[in-house]
Every structure is written in structure tokens, then in C-alpha cells.
Input
Amino acid sequence: MTEAVEYDVVVLGAGPTGENMADRLRAGGLSTAVVESELVGGECSYWACMPSKALLRPVIARAEARRVPGLRQAAEGPLDTDAVLAHRDEYASHWKDGGQVSWLDSTGARFYRGRGRLHGPRKVVVDGPEGEHHVLTARHAVAVCTGSRAVLPDLPGLAGAKAWTSREATSAHAVPGRLAVVGGGVVGVEMATAWQALGSRVTLLVRGDGLLPRMEPFVGEYVADALTAAGAEVRRNTSVASVERPDTGGPVTLVLENGERIEADEVLFATGRAPRTEDVGLESVGLRPGSWLPVDDSCRVEGSEWLYGVGDVNHRALLTHQGKYQARIAAAAIVARAQGVPLLETDRWGAHTATADHAAVPQVVFTDPEAAAVGLSLAEAETAGHRVRAVDYDISSVAGASLYGDGYRGRARMIVDLDREILLGVTLVGPGVGELLHSATVAVVGEVPSERLWHAGPAYPTISEVWLRLLETYRR
Output
């Protein structure tokens, strides 16, 4: 059966970005079709944010409890692995998307389950799971919101080694006795934290000098120290040359570049991501399949009047909350253009401009200790040519840190633009700092002058008092 239908906008991909696009487009009065070949809710709901944080929350809660007098003894002993995994399954909706489909339907968008591909300008062809064939035409725009996927390196033996990617690491139903993790970025350190606490003996292999290389160097040191204290082995400046695993299964062997061999029951490669654009018909509109989509600040693909690349596919910030932010921006731009409303392209912080993806991208890493950052690091600010000063403070010296128990370790840094007296970036590491990040984001996005921040008195005794201490340190 072939069905031909016309909509104002067709959205490819029903992850958080596509869902938010549909919601805002419908709120703006545009008819919208959404196409998804997997589960509505996307990577975040089933293989990333939700299941990973469900695995990590009991790990972090136990670590915090062990620092609190009167609670420490009650928190000793192993985690209830079965309960943790069952809670994870519930958090991931048991990998069923009925609830998400119902929500999407409630927005008024039309949902098509199947493989959607561009078929020339403003046209999308959808092949459904039961042989349905739909031809969708967009009056105003097609938005590619298909996200990204994990990439495995080109190593001898890896193709047949049944290695884990982030998907397997967040959905596994058994704890491996030994887990090798290759990669020291967010996925690598979060999954090393989770599975070590659940009973795996974890070896973390990092090619560079430290963990979390996109953050300030001291952050990786705090996280590495905590992983080591928890029993994991952290090996820096280590590269894998090949992988061996017998066809019959059994342990996997990693052969390092120095010839050393490491044996594990499972191996997770957390070594990068690629856009899921290899099979969405980009070639039909003159673009290279599998490429990142270059876009302007309204997320419209450069050189196009109707094609948008929103979320991970444009490579501006591979984070769920940034994809949702971009969706709000792009939807507002599409609605305005459909209504003939001129956009204020020069308005840096306007409703149709995704400025925060350049200036103030926030991120929390849910390890113990937590790491959080927004805006520029010191190195990034100096490379960009800003005249800056880095102001550091030991969070353990703040009165509120004592409420977290004995042995609190943490550090805060703010990067001050000395010419404009505003913050360009903030980095925090320590228990509970994730909840401080939004105030930092508001300060950076709002370009709040340091003199104005001085009048925002933090509540006592909370660890947010670190803001006052940073400002005091800066004013000395």
C-alpha cells in the first residue's frame, strides 16, 4: 500500500530532539509528521541517559552514605545487583515505547514507524515494518533529528569480538567478572564507575594522560583517584593494538601496543560517536551519506532553504539537553519562516539563534565525585584570545560540604573575562556539584557581571556558598 500525504514539516527521528521539534512545531500551528525506525524516545531513553543514571544513582548514593557518620555502617556491604538492574529496566521502560508513542500522539503530530529516507527536496519516503510505503511531502521543512551512534575503532579482531558499546554497557543483564573499558571520556568513566560498584573488576585503558580530557585537567584527576580507591585499575597512555576472542565465546584478550595482553570477560569501547545519517537519503539532496550536517545558528543546513539538522547530527553539542534546546530554536525558526516573519539574524540571544551551543554548553558527569562544567575551560579561553583569570576554591572548605560527611573532596574554578568582568566558564568537581551547575549556566549565559553576582548571597550552609568564596578570592 502506498500513501502520499503532505505536511508542513516532516521530522526524521523521534528521540528527545525530534519529540521536542514535534511539540513546538504543533504549538506553532504547523502540521507535523514524525518518522522513527527504532523506539520513540531514542538513545537517551533506552541506551544512554536514563538507564545509565539508573545504574549510577545507587552507586553514588551509597558512596555518599558511607561518608556520613551514623549512616556509614548501614551502607556497608554490596549493592543488591538484581534490584539495581530491575530498577534500570523499569527506568528504560523495559525497552518498550508505548508511553512515548502516546505522548507523541498527544502533541497532535502524526507518527510513522519505519525507515524514513529523503527522496529529493522536501520529500521523505517511509517503508513501514509491514510493507507500508508512505510518501511524505513537506511544505516548509524537513528536520533530520536521527542522532548519533557509537563508533568502534578499526582494530584487528574487533569485528568478531562481540565488544560492548554504550548500548550493551547500559542494558547488560549480568555483571561481568572482569570488564575492560577502553576510553576515558564520559561514557568510559561513568560505566567504569557503575560496573565496578556492581561487582566487576574494572580496568580502564586511556590513550592520553588523563580522564575527561574535555574538562579542566584537575577534574580527571579527582575521578581517577576515586576509581582507583574503589578498586578499578586506571592505566594512562595505553593503546590497544588488537583484540582476540575465540569463535566459541569465552574471555576476550586485548593486545596492547607494547605487546602486553589483558584478559577480560567483556570489553567496552567508548571511543567516539558518528552521526546516524548514513541511510537517510542525503545523497538525494547533494550531501554525503554518513556526514555531520553543517548548520547555521537556526539549525538550517548550510546552503538549503528547507533542510534542518538538529541535535547530534550537526556535531555542535552531543548532549540530550542541547538537542532539546536546538529543537526549540529550530522549531521557532521554522514557524517564523512559514509565517513570513523576518528573523533577527543579528540577535545573538534571540528566539531563533542557538548561541548557547557556542558559549555555554552545560554537562554533568555522574561519577563519584560528580563533575560539572559549563562554558570555556582555561585553555579554551586562552586559545580563543580572551584575557582571563582562573579563580579556584577548595569546596571542602565551604561549611555546607561538612553536611556531606567526612572526607569531602572537591574543587571549583571560574574563568573570568578581565575585560568584560563576566564569567566565561565554570567547572566543579565533588559530591553534589551537579545541582550547582544550573546557577553557573545562568551566570555564563546571562553574562552576569561579577559585581552583580556579588549581591546574590548563597544560602547557608549549602555548598552553593562556594560562589561567594570564589568571588571573594577574585576580589582580593
